[in-house]
Design a protein that fits this description.
The chain is mainly alpha-helical. 75% of the residues lie in helices and 4% in strands. A two-stranded antiparallel ribbon has the order 1-2.
Length: 219
């Protein structure tokens, strides 16, 4: 039933070059500081991702338990459904942590725009592409976040339905279909976000090369 949600993160780098007096390099080094600070601000996003995957798996196990129990054993279903509802709320809170982390990282990243005019031509071109891709990535996450919120609402409705002893199979099937549609939407949004993340990581590497900054990429 579930599709585990796991998204890619932006790679971290370590600068190996000492600061110099060339204005182009000074601008690039200042941008480096903001770029890597932005990566650090996404650490909570990464941590929340791991927790979400674990919770989704736990919730899926509970769902499988519920559908295997006869509807006349309502007490057992209610207890399991309440556990699943509790996990839904935990997932909702983790998504807020993710959104806050992505927002903070984007705000820090946006600081690099003040240095664009001081870059050499080739580094400036790559930097503009990087900024555009970062915005696309951010909007992709907003769409992912919204899809996930819809999914949480539908999960919640499903588990409350399962506590109803008068629940009809047709009604349950319709809700399960809605839940599965939500997972498909999440998967598509997640794929788009991951594509932009990969593209951004490539552009960041190109930027450091064009700006002639000696950095080491941390896997």
């Amino acid at each position: 039933m579930k599709k585990w949600m796991l998204t890619l993160v932006i790679g971290l780098t370590i600068m190996m070059l000492a600061a110099c007096t060339d204005p182009h390099n000074q601008a690039a080094e200042s941008m480096y500081e903001h770029l890597e600070a932005s990566v650090e601000l996404e650490s909570e996003f990464h941590e929340a991702q791991s927790e979400l995957v674990e919770l989704e798996q736990q919730e899926n196990d509970l769902y499988l338990e519920m559908i295997e129990v006869n509807m006349d054993e309502l007490d057992e279903i209610e207890e399991t459904a309440d556990q699943a509802l509790s996990i839904v709320e935990e997932r909702r809170q983790l998504m807020e942590v993710e959104m806050d982390s992505i927002d903070a990282a984007k705000e820090e990243f946006d600081e690099i725009e003040g240095y664009l005019d001081d870059l050499n031509e080739s580094a400036g071109e790559v930097a503009n592409d990087m900024i555009s891709t970062k915005e696309d990535r951010y909007q992709a996450f907003v769409e992912l976040y919204e899809s996930y919120q819809t999914s949480l609402d539908r999960d919640e409705e499903l588990y409350n339905m399962l506590k109803d002893e008068d629940l009809e199979k047709e009604t349950l099937d319709e809700q399960v279909e809605l839940v599965n549609e939500s997972y498909d939407e999440i998967s598509a949004a997640q794929e788009t976000f991951n594509e932009y993340t990969n593209e951004f990581n490539d552009l960041k590497r190109q930027f450091y090369e064009a700006a002639e900054l000696e950095v080491e990429f941390v896997e």
